[in-house]
Write a structure and sequence with these properties.
InterPro entries: Plipid/glycerol_acylTrfase (IPR002123). Helix content is 56%, strand content 13%. The protein is of the alpha/beta class and 327 residues long. It has one domain: Glycerol-3-phosphate (1)-acyltransferase (3-Layer(aba) Sandwich), CATH 3.40.1130. Strands 1-7-6-2-5-3-4 form a 7-stranded mixed sheet, with helices on both faces.
């Protein structure tokens, strides 16, 4: 649904209907899912937890839509400060809902020590929650306003669609044959980035899993065999794409660079993976944010090697953290 005048009414109706139905049918689905979980000997009740989060998410979306409509009604739809506050409240609400339903606990390292920006963040992508989690980290722990390079499919989320277009984000068409236009869109998104803002991109381009990792590595062997040899040791992260990152760096030549990895969301790249994880344990996530002065970031062809080195180092750190969490 490319046209917003079709997409938005359809998705808003779907989300509001989901919120109302899940709440109205609570006396029905709750005992049924309790019995299903118990019948499978899943005493952490993952289906109940997952559906409970779906209920809370649907109502957060509904409230966000109502708030966005209110800003439009009072002539403040273009007020970025008001929309940023709405984004911040919505993000906190989603993280809080995850805490209540699936036991999410986020431990953050390094985010509170960031100085003045502007910043460009290069983040690991492993789960459905990465965008929300990273926004929560940068807004609450770093006091920064994030701008995002997001895949266009996320426009199916009504709040992200409406408020995300009011704020300086860019919805990337990953299937576009016009790469130059997409890179131009990324550059325009970063223009005017202030000392209190951070432009966020996920260089892997998609959520990591073993199948995607192998497929991307195979393509890399054809185009850049030397990079493939270096990156074939990755176990958790995937080979990063460089074009979008390079466009961001060119758009904000004075920006500091931030790398961010996390451990704890691994395997949660699909709804099925989330339920399987919830059957085992609560969600405990460790986030590490590292600031790189721009002078230490290589340029030109050497930047690719620098980025690959960062990704290999983060992959190792994720592996160490996962091993520690499993003890």
């Amino acid at each position: 649904m490319e046209r917003s005048w079709i997409r938005r009414p359809v998705m808003v109706l779907g989300v509001v209907s989901m919120a109302v139905l899940l709440l109205a049918l609570l006396p029905l689905w709750l005992p049924v899912l309790l019995l299903v979980d118990a019948g499978r000997m899943n005493w952490r009740f993952p289906l109940v937890r997952f559906t409970a989060f779906g209920l809370m998410w649907a109502w957060l979306e509904t409230l966000g839509i109502v708030a966005a409509a209110f800003l439009w009604a009072v002539g403040q739809s273009r007020n970025q400060n008001a929309n940023f506050v709405l984004q911040k409240l919505w993000t906190r609400g989603v993280v809080g809902a995850l805490g209540l339903t699936v036991g999410l606990h986020i431990e953050v390292e390094g985010a509170d020590s960031l100085g003045d920006g502007p910043f460009i963040a290069l983040c690991r992508h492993a789960s459905l929650a990465d965008s929300v989690m990273s926004a929560w980290v940068f807004m609450t722990a770093s006091g920064l306003r994030p701008r995002y390079v997001l895949k266009k499919e996320l426009k199916l989320d009504p709040c992200l669609d409406v408020v995300g277009h009011r704020l300086p984000n860019y919805f990337l068409d990953r299937s576009s044959s016009n790469l130059a236009a997409e890179l131009q869109g990324i550059e325009q998104m970063a223009q005017g980035l202030s000392a209190q803002e951070i432009a966020v991109i996920f260089p892997e381009g998609t959520r990591a899993n073993d199948v995607k990792r192998a497929r991307i590595l195979e393509r890399l062997r054809e185009r850049a065999p030397e990079r493939a040899v270096k990156l074939e040791k990755l176990k958790y992260l995937m080979a990063p794409k460089t074009a979008g990152v390079t466009a961001l760096l060119a758009a904000v030549p004075n920006a500091k660079v931030v790398t961010m990895w996390h451990a704890g969301f691994d395997g949660m790249d699909s709804f099925r993976g989330i339920v399987q994880h919830l059957a085992k344990s609560a969600v405990r996530v460790h986030v590490k944010v590292t600031e790189h002065q721009r002078a230490t970031v290589a340029t030109g062809e050497a930047f690719v090697a620098w980025l690959d080195e960062q990704w290999c180092a983060m992959d190792h750190a994720v592996g160490v953290r996962i091993s520690e969490q499993s003890l």
